Recover the amino acids of this structure.
């Protein structure tokens, strides 16, 4: 499986409903999943198959820090700071980024689903999602050409 960009995100983006500016933009969050509950037809964040905070894990949905929008003559992109979970004990195979601000009348609008390519596990350690660094239009987590 590969990353999923929901069909609804594309339309909402062109209607200027998502603001990725580093300062003053919308609030985006990241949630981890044991299995992928999403398809291209999905529109909003769900807790189905979300990594549980049970068992003493230091797990929570993380607010992402936007690094802003980059563009070149053929590609535009947005990127985020890395996300870490310390003292973590869990397994995750997917993550979802969603916009917590109300987008076209809907809260928690799904932006992208990231496929880790299999289970990734931390046992009382640090679980880090590393976004491209340095981010460029060609390698950012969300880009359009």
């Amino acid at each position: 499986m590969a990353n999923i960009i929901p069909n609804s995100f594309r339309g909402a983006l062109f209607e200027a409903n998502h603001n990725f500016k580093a300062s003053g933009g919308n609030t985006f969050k990241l949630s981890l999943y044991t299995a992928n509950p999403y398809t291209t037809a999905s529109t909003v964040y769900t807790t189905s198959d979300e990594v549980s905070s049970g068992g003493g894990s230091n797990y929570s949905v993380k607010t992402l820090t936007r690094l802003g929008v980059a563009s070149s003559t053929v590609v535009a992109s947005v990127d985020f700071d890395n996300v870490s979970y310390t003292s973590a004990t869990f397994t995750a195979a997917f993550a979802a980024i969603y916009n917590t601000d109300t987008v076209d009348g809907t809260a928690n609008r799904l932006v992208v689903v990231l496929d880790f390519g299999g289970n990734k596990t931390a046992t009382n350690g640090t679980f880090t999602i590393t976004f491209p660094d340095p981010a460029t239009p060609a390698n950012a987590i969300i880009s359009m050409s």
Observations:
- The CA atoms of residues 113 and 137 lie 19 Å apart.
- The radius of gyration is 15 Å.
- The helical segments are 7-14.
- The longest strand covers residues 109-129.
